[in-house]
Amino acid sequence: MNKSRFKFVNIFFLFTLIFCFAFNLSSLKVNYEVNRISTNEKVVMITFDDGPSPTDENIMDILKEYNYKATFFGTGINYAKYFEDGGKTKKIVDRMIDEGHSLGNHSYYHNNYLLNTKEAYEEFHKTSDMIVKIYKINGIEKQISDIPVRMPYLQYHRGMGYLQKQLEIDYFVRGYLGCDYDESICGKDKILKQYKSHLKKGQILVAHTRDYATEWLPDLLDFFKKEGYKTANFEEGEFNYKNYGGLVF
Ligand SMILES: [Zn+2]
Description:
Elements: H1 3-28, E1 33-34, E2 36-37, E3 43-49, H2 55-66, E4 70-74, H3 76-79, H4 88-98, E5 102-105, H5 117-137, H6 160-167, E6 172-173, E7 176-177, H7 188-197, E8 204-208, H8 213-226, E9 230-231, E10 247-248
Parallel strand pairs: 1-6, 3-4, 3-8, 3-9, 4-5, 7-8
Antiparallel strand pairs: 2-10
Helix pairs in contact: 2-8, 5-6, 7-8
Protein name: NodB homology domain-containing protein
Pfam families: Polysacc_deac_1
Keywords: Hydrolase, Metal-binding
């Protein structure tokens, strides 16, 4: 091999290496989910999954005492009751909006969507569409792309990129998951210990709409207050997370 040909082959290999490296990095960039607000301020996002249900009234009573705002990631099957159960669910969800909490999308049926991206898209779209209608009834204009989305079971799969694109959302909302979803294995002390030890600037905390929340939530919010923490969610105005920073992995 002559010298110039050797040089060409070398450069070719170098470019191939750079290309492979860059491609690999981009395919590794699969952080469709956000876990926190990028901020140096003492602010936390409190979120409750699986409602809306009458239990949320108790949760809102507690939040109200502290003037803390949450995000409720409800399922479509529960939001549908807004239009169907003679005003019971409507009263709860309208109160969420009225008191400045955010409504999020936690799929329609709370299934496992690992193998069915198309079904996932239809369910998420239907649920966000319903949430947009509920906001509209309450005099607030939002787009489907404004509605925060959280996967059931915080599941993660390759179809999330497609879903993100189709739903025109910038991210899925994840966060720190404690074990408040099963009080038979995780009592008040353990739940409090988990959430308190994971409290940090910008943290997103994942909790659930469960009756047991009334046992530990007041203590946790006392702790937040004592530590000087504020809350943020997705509503426009004083409590919007964008007042602090962007959402990051
Ligand atoms: Zn859930």
